[in-house]
Design brief:
alpha/beta, seven-stranded mixed beta sheet, 12 helices, disordered N terminus, 354 residues
Length: 354
Amino acid sequence: MTVTSDRTTDLPPAPAPAPFPTGTQRLPMAKALNLGMRRALANDPRVLLMGEDIGRLGGVFRVTDGLFAEFGDDRVVDTPLAESGIVGTAIGLALRGYRPVCEIQFDGFVFPAFDQITTQLAKMHYRSQGRLTLPVVIRIPFGGGIGAVEHHSESPEALFAHTAGLRVVSPSTPADAFTMIQQAIASPDPVIFLEPKGRYWEKGDVDLDAPLPAPHGGTSDLDHARVVRPGTDVTVVAYGPTVATALKAADAAAAEGTSLEVVDLRTISPLDTATVAESVRRTGRCVVVHEAPVLYGSGAEVAARITEECFYHLQAPVLRVGGFHTPYPVAKLEHDYLPSLDRLLDAVDRTLAF
């Protein structure tokens, strides 16, 4: 039996929510995330947001803009500049029955909280033999492409995916951002929610009437990869910021007569091997792309699993495209570091040459 302390009788009265927009709208990812959190706050008084400058300022990227005014400082909490304190407090709140959503201002700032995340948040459910749950979401704007200074363009997903007990997910579109943030908040598990900040202002259609996730951990779709472009010659696996790069590569390859199938992982851990393997069995070739360094990156796990699952279907080795094994470079060099259209197409050519 799962036991979570539900001592939330001290919650302030829930405000009357403002009318929620409806229908399908074309929105940037930042706004889609904002509306997803807004709906979660309105529907569940246990949900609260925590982070540096997320309240009155609305966050560095304005993802939480307007939520402080609507829900107040009990639900949208400006915290001290102390990531370990943010996550440590969230753990205590979750044990008390709340569902905290923490914002880490930039990816490179998460490391002061690494101890709390990997030794406490990830392990409490296992350590208590399932009696305790920690429904904490940690939002991290990650990846590059914005010309930021040092420690503002990291891709630390492999560190968290390597830690048992954490879900690690990343949306690639505004529509997924809207639904996935709600699914993450509804999950009984701790979720590392990686937001591709270089894509915050790219727009897409969002169905604002999409059904809510199930109230008690409706996370099944959160676990699934998705084929976002069918193809026949090569499977390209991507997630978060590189899905758009993969789709551009598919357009360029199609102009030369090559058909790329693009698979958006959506969830890095747990990994949906079945969807990727089904694609690779049809195409016979696979290229994995992510912004993080290739060495020991998430793509290595995908490559290993696909080699095991699809060995007799593969017509070429699984290839990986990603960042180099260096610290993230200065802004003027980041576009040489990040996986570009040309680098991805070069990998496609190499796998077709086998």
